[in-house]
Amino acid sequence: MQGKTRRFIYLFLIISLIFPLTTGYTLKPAPSSSVNMFFNKVDSLEDTGYAFIALDFGPQSKAENLYQAKVVIEHLMRKRIPIILFSMYTLAEPILESLAFEVANNLQKEIDGEYWEYGKDWINLGFRPGASLLLQAIPKSKNLQKLFSKDAKGNDLKDFPRFDALRTINDIIFLGQFTSLTGVFDTYLQFFKTKDYRPVFGHGCSSITIPESHIYLDSGQIDGLIGGIAGASAYEELLNNKYDKRNNKEASVLNTGVGVAQLLIVILIILGNINFTKLKKYLVK
Amino acid sequence: MEKSYFDLLIIIIGGISTLAIFSFLIKENVFYRFFEHLFIGISAALGVILTFKNFLWPKVFYPLFGLDIVTYPDGTISKEYNYELLLLIIPIILGLFYYFIYSKKHAWLAKLVIGLSLGVSGGLAFKGFFNQAIPQIVSSFKPLVVILEGSVNYLQSFNNIVFLITLLSVMYYFFFTIKQESKVSKGISKLGRYLMMICFGAFFGSTIMARLSLLVERLGFLMTDWIGAIKEIF
Fold first, then answer.
1. Which residue from A60, A130, A120 is spatially nearest to A84, judged by alpha carbons?
2. Domain CATH number, residue A130
3. Does B217 sit within 8 Å of A127, measured CB to CB?
């Protein structure tokens, strides 16, 4: 009997999640001060250096990190900040290859006559092993172009003129790091800086690690935080408000699904407790 | 953009894998087990292949064997071999020492490199800890009365007071060197425990949110990409 009830709960949950996906119905995301901080930091960047985007996630947190990275990359592309994609997580490789192309295609569809190209607007360094040792080499390097030397496809970085000025960490004006792994995030916190310089640091985390990541926002070690799909949805809303032609609510649809399912869970918890109290009274009698 | 048959096939396999994993919700079964092992195997193998393809081959073996030196038709070469590259052989040999763990007689060689890597990791962790924790400690010194533009910011002040009470009571809870016997010390300790429980509640809530996000993303994939791919093929 218990097994059957459990399966009914799963069924209810799936139906509640499917509802926004099929209808495209979206609820307005709750505003988030940490997302606003992230958005404002990216929005105030100028084309004076590079954005270093670390996509350290794979299928296990793609549902959240992918949409966060997507909105941030889109924002950077709109501002024409050259992007360097990178990962120290093996399973991120396919995401590194496809994500920026997808964002560029969407932007080209939205804005007539404007183009975003690989090698000019972004490069992909691919997965790099070495984790903390490599990250320590970045602030120490006098020539980052030489340190990374080639992109993920084996092309020489010297062949991309827009990335010719990449020399030291001071040329990186923004670091965007997306992961569900706190250990990986910690490595960036610890080593991606010099004594006198740290780029603007925005972090995208999964819902599970929001409480852990918030302490770094509070201490000023990061400048903005996107938490879970709700954060991605809030960022998307800010983009929709800023750019009139944009009307993509991809993250908001997923966020609405999560919201509806959570409401269902709360209702089930209340019903379960009422039932439990009644049962207890009956047994006492 | 048109998808090739290969892309469509990948999407269809992805959908079948997702459904096989979801089948666990009904009960443990052979399809679930098969696709679970498949995922673990692919993850492990991909790591090895990418490390070799992106790092060991282009950065170590290719230059070490002098394969990046081109000989032109007139017999001249693109560059001289850099003999400093031979130094790479030392870490390669040290790395191979790990495999002596399987030999009873020579296991000490493996212990040598394990000790070395433990020392390096310890040193890095030590350095990293200070880089990470010092700003945390500094930021825990907060004014209890926040004055902004000449007037008291009550909300921020309240926030800082809550922060301080939480910090001290939780730290006190983990203070095991003195007996917490008096009513006051027991009360502080209890407060610390309750505040931690509130934090764990937040953790649990956010964990549910993350799991639901994963589920909704997979459902979205099944309903749009997967069904779309099936329709396109048939």
1. A120
2. 3.40.50
3. no
